[in-house]
Amino acid sequence: MYPYDLIFGLGLYELSAAGGILCAMVIFRHLSEQRGLPVRLHNFILADAVLTVVGGYFSAVLTQAFYDSLASGTFSVSISTGSTFLGGLTGGTLLFLAVYFAAGHFYFPDGVHRKFFPAVTDLFAVCVPAAHAFGRIGCLMAGCCHGRPAAWGLYHVNLGTRVIPVQLFEALFLAGLCVFLWQTTAKHPGTGFSKYLLLYGIWRFTAEFFRADDRGKTLVSFLSPSQLTSVLLIVSGLLLMCLHSRRRREQNEP
């Protein structure tokens, strides 16, 4: 890990996050052209994505504050509150959808945004793990989201011991997930988001057993905050897959 400032008060955590956003934008630009998204819709989605990133960050902080309040009994938001990716993903997704359909209803009277919505969800599913992979490298450098102590792990400067580099393992998983979803959505359009929710939910639920950074409590005592959210992701992914299969069957019926 390298939790030190490099330039203008920015460390590898912030630079990695910026690199992740840039990577996601490049992938989105390439895939939007490949999927035939109109330029006007492409620009609309980029504007929506900016709002999503900002709103998702606040959602991530508020979610962490909520988890902390379950443990301490006091809800408080400060510069040291921290954030949780799954809270940001949930809030950011809801905000993206709200803007996409509410503003899109007026911006696209011809309904082109609804026509291309399955393609947009596929792009979302590919871009998010790409950006997230860079973010996990930033977590590794900053020392947050660390794993349990292990003799074979990486040395953690702040803890003074070796820990399991779960951030690195997750970054590798997310990179692989990005490639997998890129390929599978080209063959099976409209399935990317459900597969992302299912596969990342399974990974995150499992990875939590090897993490050691306390994130507070949940309403379910035997599940960590991320495990509880992961269960919801898995269930949502399965439901979306079932709905997609049902819709395909109805379309193929004579």
Jot down its keywords.
254 residues; 69% helix; single chain; two-stranded antiparallel ribbon; mainly alpha
% residues in beta strands? 5-15%
In which range does the helix fraction lie?
55-70%
Number of helices: 8
Average of the residue pLDDT scores: 89
Label the overall shape: globular
Uncertain parts: none
Radius of gyration: 19 Å
Q: Main beta sheet, described? A: 2 strands, antiparallel
Total beta strands: 4
Strand order of the largest sheet: 1-2
- Topology pattern, helix = H, strand = E: EEHHHHHEEHHH
What class would the helix/strand composition place it in? mainly alpha
| End-to-end Cα distance | 59 Å
Helix and strand layout, with pairings?
Blueprint: E1 5-7, E2 10-11, H1 12-34, H2 39-72, H3 85-107, H4 112-115, H5 117-142, E3 149-156, E4 161-163, H6 166-187, H7 192-207, H8 225-252
Antiparallel strand pairs: 1-2, 3-4
Helix pairs in contact: 1-5, 2-3, 5-6, 5-7, 6-7, 7-8
Provide an overview of this structure.
The protein has eight helices and four strands, in the order ββαααααββααα. By secondary structure, it is mainly alpha-helical. α1 packs antiparallel against α5. It starts with a strand and ends with a helix. The strands form two sheets. It has a two-stranded antiparallel ribbon. Strands 3-4 form a two-stranded antiparallel ribbon.
Short description:
With 254 residues, this protein is mainly α. The protein is built from 8 helices and 4 strands, in the order E-E-H-H-H-H-H-E-E-H-H-H.
